[in-house]
Amino acid sequence: MQIKFNSSCLICIVGEMMNFRQLQTFVLIAESGGFARAEGRLRLSQPAASRQILALEAELGIPLFDRIGRRIKLTSGGEDLLQRARRLLQDAESFVERARALKGGQAGTLRVGSTGFHIETLLADFLPTFRRRYPSVEIDLIEDGGARLPERLRRGDIHLGLTPPVDEDFGMRPLAPNIGLAVVSSKHRLAGKKILEITELADESLLLLRRDFASRVVFDTACHIARIKPRVILESAAPHTLLALARTGNGVAIVPSNVHIAPFVSCRSCTVVHRSEDGLPSLGISSVIWRPMQNSSLTN
Question: Among 195, 207, 193, which residue's Cα sits nearest to residue 247?
């Protein structure tokens, strides 16, 4: 009768019946050609090593060595299991190394939630550098509006979110200022302005991002504080759609400053200044946020 073993069988045996020390002892004795020759590598006395082999044979139910006087020789079953034992020890070493890498944030999958324009203007240039530094970390990008990212973070859909700061119990690190821009055609009455009070937009036809974008939430809050009701002619998820319409004189596009405006060379942009509830000028900040219970290495 031929006895067949597979990896899952060996893993089960190792996990439930023996320890890796016994397996290491078996491999070293077989490779060294005897107990005496393996003694230095094992750091075990011959009697202790012999007891481990006897225990392993008892658990497996087959002899691993033939004892010929003072000499030993692998049985046919021992020769077969030696190759599997080597692979199992290699897998175990790889398993431990992988666990260490995961613990240190050097491996695994990182799900990053971001708006499309953060992906375009920030992550597109950053990710190649990150992958070179952490080749074992797989990045999954999830595109969504900034206003929805905190909720996705709470649900565990993502590990990190790129969004303006939120009044939540999240870990946070600011990345860069993110102000609101009013973008118009070169012939628009506002084209020559560098700073624009939000109240000056009261009578303009506005091209806005949808309400699931955090910058839109900020803009709506500023309008409420200024007691103006914006005249919105389009809401879009695509900032470049708004810019294309603004360039041809179809209204004023309100976009965050991390939107790439350069291709629209005939556009003119100015900073929109608005006040917070305490009357002070308010500026936005792009931030990376995470749940505090996640890997503490994110704070390093």
Answer: 207
**What was the pLDDT predicted at 234?**
96
Nearest to 203 by CA among 222, 187, 186, 190: 190
- pLDDT of residue 169 exceeding 60, the answer is yes
Amino acid in the structure at residue 165: P
Parallel, antiparallel or unpaired: strands 267-275 and 195-197: parallel
Buried b vs exposed e over 108-127: b needs ≥16 C-beta within 10 Å? eebbbbbbbbbbbbbeeeee
Instruction: Give the whole-angstrom CA distance, residue 153 versus residue 176.
Output: 21
CA distance 168 to 291: 10
- pLDDT-derived band of residue 6, with 50, 70 and 90 as boundaries? very low
pLDDT in tens, 183-232: 999 899 999 888 888 899 999 999 999 988 888 888 898 899 889 999 99
- Which pLDDT value is given to residue 271? 84
Q: What is the pTM of this model?
A: 0.56
- 108 Cβ partners below 8 Å, 6+ apart? 101, 102, 136, 137, 138
CATH of 7-103, one of 1.20.120.80, 3.40.50.1100, 3.30.365.10, 1.10.10.10: 1.10.10.10
Pick the CATH number of 178-284 from 3.30.499.10, 3.40.50.2000, 3.40.190.10, 3.40.190.290: 3.40.190.290
* Structural element, H or E, at residue 217: helix 214-226
State the pLDDT at residue 5.
40
Contact 169, 161 (CB under 8 A): no
Question: Quick one: which H or E segment has residue 149?
Answer: helix 149-155
The fold of 108-176+287-294 is D-Maltodextrin-Binding Protein; domain 2 (3.40.190)
Mean pLDDT of 76-97: 82
Query: Which of 250, 280, 247 is CA-nearest to residue 262?
Result: 247
